[in-house]
Amino acid sequence: MGLEIKMPALSPTMEEGTLAKWLVKEGDTVKSGDIMAEIETDKATMEFEAVDEGTIEKILIAEGTDNVKVGTVIAMLSGEGEETPAAAPPAEAPKAEAPAVAQKADESEAPAPKKAESGTSNLAGAKSAPAADPAIPEGTQMVRTTVREALRDAMAEEMRKDDRVFLMGEEVAEYQGAYKVTQGLLEEFGARRVIDTPITEHGFAGIGAGAAMGGLKPIVEFMTFNFAMQAIDQIINSAAKTNYMSGGQMRCPIVFRGPNGAASRVGAQHSQNYAPWYAHVPGLVVIAPYDASDAKGLLKAAIRSEDPVVFLENELVYGRSFDVPQLDDHVLPIGKARIVRPGKDVTLVSYSIGVGVALEAAEALAGEGIDAEVIDLRTLRPLDTATVLESLKKTNRLVVVEEGWPVCSISSEIIAVCMEQGFDDLDAPVLRVTNEDVPLPYAANLEKAALVDAARVIAAAKKVTYRS
Amino acid sequence: MAKPASSRTRKPATAPATLPGADHNRERPGEPESYKASKEELLEFYRQMLLIRRFEERAGQLYGLGFIGGFCHLYIGQEAVAVGIQSALTPGKDSVITGYRDHGHMLAYGIDPKLIMAELTGREAGISRGKGGSMHMFSVEHKFYGGHGIVGAQVSLGTGLAFGHKYKEDGGVCIAYFGDGAANQGQVYESFNMAELWKLPIIYVIENNGYAMGTSVQRSSSEGELYRRGESFRIPGIQVDGMDVLAVRGATETALEYVRAGKGPILLEMKTYRYRGHSMSDPAKYRSRDEVQHVRDTSDPIDGLKKVLMEAGVKEEDLKSLDAQIRKTVSEAADFAESSPEPDASELYTDVLVEQY
Ligand SMILES: Cc1ncc(C[n+]2csc(CCOP(=O)(O)OP(=O)(O)O)c2C)c(N)n1
Ligand SMILES: [Mg+2]
């Protein structure tokens, strides 16, 4: 009686991986807790432990094999728990026979989904690339870069240029970043400039702000912005207001950065979009890029700025690759939106991961004869209202797409701007497509229902173009 | 006894008071003793720890198969802490609160593994109806108050629960569990101060498993002897071998006696170890395989208690059949969690507020 050992998912987003190394061979006996193999995911090499006791009967996937799908049988274990047949592993195994990807033969009898897919998969769909950025000189060599690498490169370049710049946060140095954004920085810049902190957000945000007031240029990483709520007092009451209160004497040039917004299946306390919270505050600059080129160019600009900047990244796009211009110094202007897809029938305004959703919707709309223009706001404070209003003048219809709650949001702000300054150009009410107005649930089906997706954007676009 | 009441169990009870400048008049709890358990109690501790271990192994497997998503923090290695402490509490009277590494605390409270596993898979039958997930489970019925994802938040919340016990004069004590990493959050110390000032009935339990994600205690804490963290608030601390369920239970008895007598809060530092990564996606490069193996080989809480049981005359076969029973329970919980339906779509909008306006 063999027990199948399957390729495990070692991270919330893993779909396949490399079976880097077997640490056991056929004939070896293993017991719960023994490390059987090393598996490489997109982020790291992980150890894979045995759960059941038994002898390795057969190794089915050789070490060094790439792209092994989660759920593939990689080895067979012969159970040694035979003395307790009722509880022996094989008896438990049948449930697990389906690979993790939803492959269900017994659909009719088994109403419950086998694998709970994340609702965030709808956010991660966008295959359509943004249009070339007109700010980048034509003919510039482009390099495919992940957002993760682009952010790291931006920090490394600025740190090479300016000794006042240093990086501080939880797990940024030795661990190479909780999401591997700071990979390699400790090695290059040393422990003086790449600093691991204890889990004390309020304290180190204050230390960062103080260091900035005293003449340094800190980059403070929050493991995610959910944890910056511990620190929000220092960000708003200290960093944002000092220059004003001191009559312009005392600056606070600091960058607070980290992932923001919903991640995959992490529940209500770990899935919030803080863009509207920070964009509300005079004295802050708030940036939320979508693609890798903007991530790099705007992070470099943020580090150089003399103002406190809240720089909102998104975990779900860290691994996506985009073209990044190969320039010695790729810096982009803060406060400028970008038309990532030109069109004439309806304007879709978004930022961060919502841009991908808007682009996906635009492509589908094109198939139905609706030519959508997509604007990536990129900077949320100050807001580039001119670009939005100009587009509205052309299309006369506008939909805001936001991966976040609807109430008092960036969408609300855009709609107010259109009412106040673009009223005469409107041929339909401005609509917003946002997450549902609830804390993010864990259950996969509810999570999916709670988050924005292209289908909802398409429906809204049809509504404002009176095609529904 | 898994281990004799070694120096490790109880290194410092008197040490702080003898430090230069220490306040010798400050009241301290007595020296904790290893708990003298009956054979039935020993077997029950063993059963509970093994249930947690097998449940967590299964949860890890289900995660690997994609049934569980997001963050999933396993309690493997730390079983003796929750089991030793919670066995000393009075059900229905004392309250418990912890962080996201919460499966073990719920199982130690006798909460049905099916409801827990179904929460992990995000199903309607889950204890939070699938809306909370691994990190956010609660059972007000058992006075188990969660299941919190923000590191350190449970310490203030637990202090509030203790405030409630005192206010209502219900005789209850709150157990607030938190990690060595959480012990650096500022709100912990704000809470310590008020708890001592107001003599609140709370036992602060630091589950010191050596690491906060990839950061060891030495790299994050200027005072690495965490049982001392209450000293400047006049909260006494005891360091306990958290791999020895009897030592844990014994220290809890001492702490409960102190707190129930109205003397205010107390701090227990449980020296323990997590075998698995921080969560499922931790490559664990910050420690060596040998380090983990060494702990498994020398101080595993379940193996340790097994020795005690054998000495007490329990037979290997009995433990084997207990294991078989537990595996069956866990399998049933897993089957239930895999096959029960997801929440109804309408659940998305329920429970946001209690009242209608
Ligand atoms: C305020 C806050 N900051 C950071 C995190 C991310 N985080 C989750 S668990 C963890 C490590 C906590 O370690 P410890 O307190 O030792 O508990 P353990 O995980 O070892 O049980 C971190 C940094 C968080 N959840 N909340
Ligand atoms: Mg810890």
TrEMBL record, chain A:
<dbReference type="Pfam" id="PF02779">
    <property type="entry name" value="Transket_pyr"/>
</dbReference>
<feature type="compositionally biased region" description="Basic and acidic residues">
    <location>
        <begin position="104"/>
        <end position="117"/>
    </location>
</feature>
<dbReference type="GO" id="GO:0006086">
    <property type="term" value="P:pyruvate decarboxylation to acetyl-CoA"/>
</dbReference>
<keyword id="KW-0450">Lipoyl</keyword>
<dbReference type="GO" id="GO:0004739">
    <property type="term" value="F:pyruvate dehydrogenase (acetyl-transferring) activity"/>
</dbReference>
<keyword id="KW-0560">Oxidoreductase</keyword>
<feature type="region of interest" description="Disordered">
    <location>
        <begin position="81"/>
        <end position="137"/>
    </location>
</feature>
<dbReference type="InterPro" id="IPR011053">
    <property type="entry name" value="Single_hybrid_motif"/>
</dbReference>
<dbReference type="InterPro" id="IPR009014">
    <property type="entry name" value="Transketo_C/PFOR_II"/>
</dbReference>
<dbReference type="InterPro" id="IPR003016">
    <property type="entry name" value="2-oxoA_DH_lipoyl-BS"/>
</dbReference>
<comment type="subunit">
    <text>Heterodimer of an alpha and a beta chain.</text>
</comment>
<feature type="domain" description="Lipoyl-binding">
    <location>
        <begin position="2"/>
        <end position="78"/>
    </location>
</feature>
<dbReference type="InterPro" id="IPR033248">
    <property type="entry name" value="Transketolase_C"/>
</dbReference>
<dbReference type="InterPro" id="IPR029061">
    <property type="entry name" value="THDP-binding"/>
</dbReference>
<keyword id="KW-0786">Thiamine pyrophosphate</keyword>
<comment type="function">
    <text>The pyruvate dehydrogenase complex catalyzes the overall conversion of pyruvate to acetyl-CoA and CO2.</text>
</comment>
<dbReference type="Pfam" id="PF00364">
    <property type="entry name" value="Biotin_lipoyl"/>
</dbReference>
<dbReference type="InterPro" id="IPR005475">
    <property type="entry name" value="Transketolase-like_Pyr-bd"/>
</dbReference>
<protein>
    <recommendedName>
        <fullName>Pyruvate dehydrogenase E1 component subunit beta</fullName>
        <ecNumber>1.2.4.1</ecNumber>
    </recommendedName>
</protein>
<dbReference type="InterPro" id="IPR000089">
    <property type="entry name" value="Biotin_lipoyl"/>
</dbReference>
<dbReference type="Pfam" id="PF02780">
    <property type="entry name" value="Transketolase_C"/>
</dbReference>
<dbReference type="InterPro" id="IPR027110">
    <property type="entry name" value="PDHB_mito-type"/>
</dbReference>
TrEMBL record, chain B:
<feature type="region of interest" description="Disordered">
    <location>
        <begin position="1"/>
        <end position="36"/>
    </location>
</feature>
<dbReference type="GO" id="GO:0006086">
    <property type="term" value="P:pyruvate decarboxylation to acetyl-CoA"/>
</dbReference>
<comment type="function">
    <text>The pyruvate dehydrogenase complex catalyzes the overall conversion of pyruvate to acetyl-CoA and CO(2). It contains multiple copies of three enzymatic components: pyruvate dehydrogenase (E1), dihydrolipoamide acetyltransferase (E2) and lipoamide dehydrogenase (E3).</text>
</comment>
<keyword id="KW-0670">Pyruvate</keyword>
<protein>
    <recommendedName>
        <fullName>Pyruvate dehydrogenase E1 component subunit alpha</fullName>
        <ecNumber>1.2.4.1</ecNumber>
    </recommendedName>
</protein>
<comment type="subunit">
    <text>Heterodimer of an alpha and a beta chain.</text>
</comment>
<dbReference type="InterPro" id="IPR017597">
    <property type="entry name" value="Pyrv_DH_E1_asu_subgrp-y"/>
</dbReference>
<keyword id="KW-0560">Oxidoreductase</keyword>
<feature type="compositionally biased region" description="Basic and acidic residues">
    <location>
        <begin position="23"/>
        <end position="36"/>
    </location>
</feature>
<dbReference type="Pfam" id="PF00676">
    <property type="entry name" value="E1_dh"/>
</dbReference>
<dbReference type="InterPro" id="IPR050642">
    <property type="entry name" value="PDH_E1_Alpha_Subunit"/>
</dbReference>
<dbReference type="GO" id="GO:0004739">
    <property type="term" value="F:pyruvate dehydrogenase (acetyl-transferring) activity"/>
</dbReference>
<dbReference type="InterPro" id="IPR001017">
    <property type="entry name" value="DH_E1"/>
</dbReference>
<keyword id="KW-0786">Thiamine pyrophosphate</keyword>
<dbReference type="InterPro" id="IPR029061">
    <property type="entry name" value="THDP-binding"/>
</dbReference>
<feature type="domain" description="Dehydrogenase E1 component">
    <location>
        <begin position="48"/>
        <end position="345"/>
    </location>
</feature>
